Amino acid sequence: MSVCRSNVSRMGHLDLSRVSGQVWTKDHPDYEKAAQPHQLAVQQSPEAVAIPTDVEDLRAVLEAVREAGLTLAVQAGGHGASEDLAGSVLVRMDSFDQLTVDEQGRRAVVGAGVRAEALATALAGTALFAATGTSPDVSLVGLTLNGGHSWLSRMVGTSAQTVRRVELLRPDGEHGWVDDSSDPELMRVLRGAGGVLGVVTAIELDLVHAPGAMAGSLTFAPADGPAAWRAMRDAEVDDAVSIFAASMRMPDAPFLPEQVRGKSWVGVQALALDGQVAAIDAVRAAASPLSDQVGPIGPEGVAALTNDPRDAGASAGLSVLLTGLPDEAIDAMLGWHRTDAGAAVVLLGVRRLGGALDRPGRPAIAGTRGATWLMSAIAPMPPGAADATRAALAQLGEVVAPWVAPGGLPTFLGSTERLDRVLTGEDLAALHALRERLGASVIRPTRL
Ligand SMILES: Cc1cc2nc3c(=O)[nH]c(=O)nc-3n(C[C@H](O)[C@H](O)[C@H](O)COP(=O)(O)OP(=O)(O)OC[C@H]3O[C@@H](n4cnc5c(N)ncnc54)[C@H](O)[C@@H]3O)c2cc1C
Question: For ligand 1, what atom is nearest to the CA of residue 148?
């Protein structure tokens, strides 16, 4: 926050008249709406919001920001919003909507405004899968610059590690592609802490060809949760199989559809790129599923596996890496979720790590470093409930503390957490050194 204050005190006149895209300054009647991120728990009050039309226009914003002594903050949808943006101009990347799929070469070029759903739609019928997260609404650039865990991670590593090259507007105004041979250190840091080095306009990603992919989704009554989670943990899977499990506890809220309102259940989902669904068979055999769906899946069907919420809302989360998932951990997590405090959390999930995540892959600053499970909890924050929600998540943090591993992926940081929670001191120093080398003080040091 001290950075923001000093920026404000040095603030000169902000002249965005050379920008041809849309601009909202604080006196504009739609300013508040334009400044709002998807994550409504974060109040953003940037000096202005701009949607530049192309690279030249983006450069014009950058220059105006520099002349005014401000910083530039970039967002796609703002699912990962983390701080007030006083002292910054917020740039949204909607106009950077390039999307090209090279089926033969198994790669795609996606602009910074492209959301996972648009890529999944473009890939329909190709049997080519991208390393997107569970939300169809999140941008590929926002996901990969912050690490990213996907259904493909056990096969290809983090989403960031599927990035072949990055198109970047550097703080000095130079624009072009960077890859592992032209600037290895810049690429390493872009893969996980990439939001503070410049403005990324596009990325090129690997795609995975999986014509025989199968997916399975089972739900169970909460009483069967411990057995289902144990079977999911013990299932032998190869690296082409990803498995997620969740305990769901929905509030009795009138806006929810009747079939889920006030209900609790446990779910296990698997995506088998090689078509091997033995893990789902093992989980099915361990308890009596309430629902049971197994079948072929294409890239366009992946988002439906978890049906993540799409509406903007205020929420808080807790996500940690785990060293293991012994019976005690399963019982502690699922038991806590049934308590009064646990009612704050709608989703308490675990994802199996390992496979390619433990192999070197493309150099990346953020990774899961040998941890075996990823735990995430999501808690909506209705007005006035922020303190109670945060207290519940802190309690969950204590419950899982015995199994927490260091590190993590920045995509899973809560809105109040900083990069030092997941990066080593050495990597943070490397990030600062790179900002220095690029002259990136004009880029807002988000989460630093
Ligand atoms: C429902 C839901 C499900 C999710 N599931 C997963 C999941 O399965 N796996 C996972 O890893 N994550 C997941 N996430 C987290 C998500 O990937 C992060 O919030 C991520 O930051 C992407 O969100 P966004 O596209 O809205 O980015 P934004 O919030 O818009 O941007 C986040 C940050 O990225 C940087 N950034 C974005 N665009 C640019 C750019 N063009 N140039 C430079 N910097 C930029 C900036 O620092 C910015 O502050 C999920 C989030 C939600 C809400």
Answer: 11
Contact 213, 298 (CB under 8 A): yes
**Res. 271: pLDDT tops 70:** yes
- Complete domains list, the chain, with CATH: 10-92 (3.30.43.10), 99-209+422-440 (3.30.465.10), 214-413 (3.40.462.20)
Identify whether the C-beta of residue 140 lies closer than 8 Å to the C-beta of residue 116: yes
pLDDT digits (tens, 9 = 90+) for 395-415: 999 999 999 999 999 999 998
Cβ(79)–Cβ(26) below 8 Å = no
Q: Is there an atom of ligand 1 within 6 Å of 315 CB?
A: no
**Residue 182 contacts by C-beta under 8 Å, 6 or more apart in sequence?**
none
Compute, in angstroms, the gap from residue 75 CA to the centroid of ligand 1.
8
Q: What is the pLDDT of residue 87?
A: 97
Whether the per-residue pLDDT at 3 is higher than 80: the answer is: no
Contact yes or no for 383/105 (Cβ under 8 A): no
72 lines ligand 1 (CB under 6 A): no
Q: Is 368 in the pocket of ligand 1 (CB under 6 A)?
A: no
For the chain, give the number of residues: 448
pTM of the model: 0.95
Q: Is 419 in the pocket of ligand 1 (CB under 6 A)?
A: no
Q: Decide: 132 in ligand 1 pocket, CB within 6 A.
A: no
pLDDT(186) > 90: yes
Question: Ligand 1 centroid vs 77 CA: distance in angstroms?
Answer: 8
